[in-house]
Write a structure and sequence with these properties.
By secondary structure, the protein is mainly beta. It has one domain: Jelly Rolls. A hairpin with a 2-residue loop joins strand 3 and strand 4. The longest helix is centred in the N-terminal third of the chain and has 6 residues. The model has no long low-confidence stretch (mean pLDDT about 95).
Length: about 190
């Protein structure tokens, strides 16, 4: 079919919003989620070693902000399989002019958007609908020794989560993550 991609660089240029081409007919649609050649032609090169999926029952579930420290840092390609998410990425590259800055994108199952998150960034999302499922490819295997994150509500980052008055649903792990100023910049 050929993997034609619509790729948009977000405010932090390394972060890319990707819209793969959908081929629709009366049955529904077909789409190539990952085509190495098409992604490389779009300037997005990565090898993936693991696919992950998360399901969140409640709208307002926040997962993140997660990353793995080097040498097990992960590149991610994230998409919503069901429902929608407010997806957030925070620059953790200490030499970057955008260090500590967040950028966000809306990912919907209906729209098929994907977010490319290179290593050097923390990633998280807030579910906007009940029964939301998110899938993501990662370039490095999960490593508990390198797995960490930063606080979802760090005022220095200032993410405006779209909770619409709801109390966020978080894991115990995510409730205990340190603020950005409390960690040594890993990248």
């Amino acid at each position: 079919m050929g993997g034609k991609l619509d790729v948009v660089s977000l405010a932090i240029g390394a972060i890319k919003l990707v819209r793969p081409q959908r081929h629709s007919d009366q049955r529904g649609y077909f789409v190539e989620i990952w085509n190495r050649k098409a992604f490389e032609e779009a300037g997005i090169g990565s090898e993936y070693v693991q696919d992950n999926s998360s399901f969140s029952r409640v709208a307002g579930t926040i997962r993140g902000l997660h990353f793995q420290r080097p040498p097990r840092a992960q590149t991610k390609l994230v998409r919503a399989l069901r429902g929608s998410v407010f997806d957030v990425v925070v620059d953790l590259r200490s030499s970057s002019t955008t260090f500590g800055r967040a950028v966000s994108a809306l990912l919907t199952a209906e729209g098929g958007e994907q977010l490319f998150v290179p290593a050097g960034f923390a990633h998280g999302f807030c579910t906007l609908e009940p029964d939301t499922e998110v899938a993501y490819k990662v370039s490095e295997f999960y490593s508990p020794e390198h797995d960490t994150g930063i606080a979802w509500d760090d005022p220095a980052i200032g993410i405006e989560w779209p909770l619409d008055g709801r109390k966020p649903v978080l894991s115990e792990k995510d409730l205990k993550l340190p603020r950005l100023a409390e960690i040594e910049a890993p990248f």
